[in-house]
C-alpha cells in the first residue's frame, strides 16, 4: 500500500512522532514553536485525519489522554513527497536537480553520495 499524501501540518505532527516516539496530543502540540503554535483542537482534528489515513495509530490511553504513534516511516513519507514532486515535472528529475545545484542546495558531498548509490545500483543489476 502506498504511503498517504500528507499536508504540511500533518508532516509536522509526524515529525514530532518520528523524533520523540509515541506522544499524547498535548505533547505533540508542545513540539511546535510557541509563536504560531496550532491550537490543541487543531492538532486533535489533524491526528484524527492521520488516523483515517492510517499514518498514526492510537496505542493506549492514560487517563483522558490517548497516546499516538507513527505507523508510516519517515523514509516512506519522504519517498511519497519526492514522487509527488517529480510527478509535477512529468517524472523527470533533471529540472529538480538543476534547480538544487543552481540554488546551492546540493553539495559536492551530496553529488558524490548520489554517484556512489548509482554505482552500487548498477553493480546490483549485473548478473
Topology diagram in text:
Layout: H1 8-20, E1 23-24, H2 25-30, H3 40-52, E2 56-62, E3 65-70, H4 74-88, H5 94-102, H6 108-125
Antiparallel strand pairs: 1-3, 2-3
Explain the overall architecture.
The chain has helices spanning 8-20, 25-30, 40-52, 74-88, 94-102, 108-125, and strands spanning 23-24, 56-62, 65-70. By secondary structure, the protein is mainly alpha-helical. It folds into two domains: 1-91, Arc Repressor Mutant, subunit A, CATH 1.10.10; 93-127, no CATH class. It has a three-stranded antiparallel beta sheet.
> What does the radius of gyration come to?
19 Å
Element-by-element helix/strand order: HEHHEEHHH
Average pLDDT number:
93
Determine the fraction of residues in helical runs and give it as a percent range.
55-70%
CATH class of the largest domain: Mainly Alpha
Question: How many domains would you count in the coordinates?
Answer: 2
- Stretches where pLDDT is under 50 for at least 5 consecutive residues are none
CATH topology term of the largest domain: Arc Repressor Mutant, subunit A
| Strands, count | 3
Find the structural class using helix and strand composition: mainly alpha
Neighbour order of strands in the largest sheet: 1-3-2
- Known CATH architecture of the largest domain: Orthogonal Bundle
N- to C-terminal distance: 30 Å
Largest sheet: number of strands, sense, barrel closure: 3 strands, antiparallel
* Share of residues in strands: 5-15%
